[in-house]
Specification:
- The chain is mainly alpha-helical and about 150 residues long.
- Helices cover about 50% and strands about 0% of the residues.
- The protein is built from 6 helices and no strands.
- The protein has helices at about 5-20, 40, 50-55, 55-70, 75-85, 105-120.
- It starts with a helix and ends in a 26-residue tail after the last helix.
């Protein structure tokens, strides 16, 4: 069974466990039934935690290695500095020195940062907010930021 198939099975079993709880029973009361990992049973109806921690580590490792192989020396230096700070649990402020960029690049970076903040503030219209009923939305990235 694929990972996504197993995840669906676990979610269904967790839903069955919720129904059984309303009747004063639990899925573990029926040992002949398949049992999902306990993390699925401890989540009420919100599976966000499971979704956000259910990483495909081999795929992510391969993607990381592929992206790192495309970095230049300066990018790798920044990457390693950030990783080092995270591994050492250091509070570290990272900044881009204004003198390192030409004026037009600083302006584009500033405009992009303002645009990202506007998304977080809810001031950017989402591409499919009128038609979508879930929590997933699309944002059209303006051509000047691509």
């Amino acid at each position: 069974m694929t990972k996504s198939g197993m995840r669906i099975q676990f979610l269904v079993l967790a839903d069955i466990d919720c129904l059984l709880k309303s009747l004063g029973k639990r899925l573990k009361d029926y040992p002949s039934l398949p049992q999902p990992p306990s993390i699925y049973l401890n989540v009420q109806s919100n599976n966000l935690i499971i979704d956000e921690t259910n990483y495909d580590r081999p795929s992510m490792t391969a993607e990381n290695e592929a992206l790192l192989s495309q970095c230049n020396k300066e990018q790798l230096d920044v990457y390693h500095e950030v990783v080092h700070a995270v591994e050492k649990n250091e509070e570290h402020a990272f900044s881009i020195l204004a003198n390192d960029f030409p004026v037009e690049h600083r302006k584009r970076l500033s405009d992009f940062a303002d645009w990202v903040l506007a998304i977080g503030d809810g001031n950017v219209k989402l591409a499919n907010s009128d038609t979508k009923q879930s929590n997933e939305y699309e944002i059209d990235i303006p051509v000047e930021y691509r």
